[in-house]
Every structure is written in structure tokens, then in C-alpha cells.
Amino acid sequence: MIAKKIHQGFTLVELMIVIVIIGILTSIGVFAFQSSQKKSRDSRRKADLANITVALDMYNNDNSAFPIDTNGKIGGIEWGSAFSTGSIVYMIKLPKGRNTTLKIAHLAELQ
What we know:
By secondary structure, the chain is mostly helical. The chain has a domain at 45-111. It contains 2 helices and 4 strands. The strands form 2 sheets. It has a two-stranded antiparallel ribbon. Strands 3-4 form a two-stranded antiparallel ribbon. A hairpin with a 2-residue loop joins strand 1 (69-70) and strand 2. The radius of gyration is 28 Å and the shape is rod-shaped.
């Protein structure tokens, strides 16, 4: 009688190949995710700059001058608070990021 050897489970080589494939797919996924996060942050910054530019233009139209830059603040207003004068609100909330020292002269150059 011929004895049949029954194989149960996977060999070590098969398991190692699967682990390597999963590692490669994971690294590709992480790279794609980080890239999309960077693009998202960049587009948010561009939108914030465009909104600040519009708010400064509206201020300039009302006051015939741009606000005074005091230590990187627009007209002395803290980043993260409302940009307004009296009852006129130019921007509900100035964006606040890691580095919020922005010179108004640089915004004028963007136009």
C-alpha cells in the first residue's frame, strides 16, 4: 500500500511571499495617502491666500489704503480672529497655521 502524505497549511516560503506582497502594497498606499494630504494642505493654503487677498482688496476699497502691517499681523489683528473694522467684517476668521507671520507687502505683489 502506498502511503499518501497529506499537506495541511502553507509552507514558510508561501507565507513569506504573501507578507512581502502585503508590505509592498502597504508602502504604496501610505505614499499615495501622504501625497494626497500634501496636495490638500497646499490647495487649502492657496484658497486661504486668495481669501485674504479679497478681504484686503475690500478693505482697500473702503479705506483707500491697505491696513498697516504690525509684526506680521493684518492691521494688528491676531491670526485666527475676525478681520473687521467697526461693523464691517472683511473676513470672519483669518486663517491660522504653523507660520502666520505674513507680510502685507507680499500679498500686494501677488496681485
